[in-house]
Amino acid sequence: MASLSNLTSWHSDWKGLRVAVIGLGVTGFSVADTLAELGCNVLVVAEKAEAELVDILDVIGVSHVTGQAASGVPAQLVEFAPELVVTSPGVKPDAPLIVWAGDNNIEVWVDIDLAWRLRDKTSRVAEWVLITGTNGKTTTTQLTTAMLQAGGHRASSCGNIGTPILDCIRDPEGFDFLVVEISSFQLHYLRWVSPIASALLNIDHDHIDWHGSFEAYQTAKGKVYANSKVAGVYNAGDAATVRLLEDAEVIEGCRAIGFTVGVPRVSQVGYSDDILCDRAFLENRRDEALELATLEDLGQIGVLTPHLLANVAAASALARACDVEPIAIGQAIRDFRLDKHRIELVAQSNGVTWIDDSKATNPHATAASLSSFDSVVWMVGGLLKGVDITPLVERFAKKLRGAVVIGREREAVLAALAAVAPEVPVIEINVEDNTQVMPYAVEAASNLAQPGDTVLLAPSSASMDQFKDYADRGTQFANAVRNLIGNANG
Questions:
Q1: Which of 100, 156, 307, 403 has the fewest C-beta atoms under 10 angstroms from its C-beta?
Q2: Separation between Cα atoms, residue 141 and residue 133, nearest integer Å
Q3: Within this chain, do residues 88 and 126 fall inside the same structural domain, yes or no?
């Protein structure tokens, strides 16, 4: 069996390599399944494991340690003596198993590392586009994919969303482009890939509990630019993205391309009057610009917010770096629709607008929402992930008609409101039955709202304390709003 440094292709000799796979979610299963197909000797270690997936592991001949037996550093793992560990990215760097691997000089990869080495399974070897950021990753990834497809390319969104990247690698037809949404967790572990283009959309405090510090979080995010070949796309309105690109080691000839919600400078994509235009990918970019779309086109996507404008500009810059023609970009924008729970209009009644942005799970995403409306009844709270919400409250206090606080970690939110926005009316939702959280919260918001206000579900928190996930939280919000309005009109 060759050393890891020689395993750079699907067609390398992977047979017999002892690999420990940590975690058995969608990603972990795709890793184990792929390695088994390559002929590796695989051991899955997972405290949480669905019975159906464990049964499939038995069928494909993959050993496993699950449940309580998988905690810490299992004796079966030590006896297995892995030559490589591939971890689910959510596993913290200080987890006992990761520390054990480091102490024993065992390389730790994520699925992205493995996929990069295996990308030549078919003769159609895809170029990769990498996208990260505190906020806006998913929409920008989906938009970029849609633009590439409109340009006639076979492209797929993968990574942190959609199809597991290893499933894309094993697609028998292959792809021209893989548009990879990549999280700070994946970037922390990532070793070496070389995308055609990469983007860091923005950066703000998030996942501090996982990374240990904001500096470590920024460092991880900045790795997205490493080894980019054609373009590193930065946010002209976010100095940190500029600095991290300047610090990155890119391939010679790679260009720095900015995106902006304002008028674009040379080598930027942005907006002039009501036109989305490109001043980056044309020969006479100092004096001319290419029209890509209009604000009317963008308005068909969803609520026209600065956040949406930024995402569209970033995706356009990435697509242009991949030689997609302007006409295809315009068509993709006109045909695109946002996923649910992303600044989604739920209802308008009695002069009050109800917006579901349950996907706003951190302060940066929430700031994008709050910036988009003039007078807000804010529904906030959940699992804060170690982030201090006080600066966010202070920044937007003057916009708040009131606040409705949900979640199990309400104390920190209530304290922040009391400290920096004492004049804002606050209603705390304290119910034991999680199914009643949203009905009570929506009724409370309705009592605070006045004509012209927006009731905004932008919790700035994760959802798993009271809901299945952010989608469940948003769906329960929308249902409660419609029930309230229906009863009022009935």
A1: 100
A2: 11
A3: no
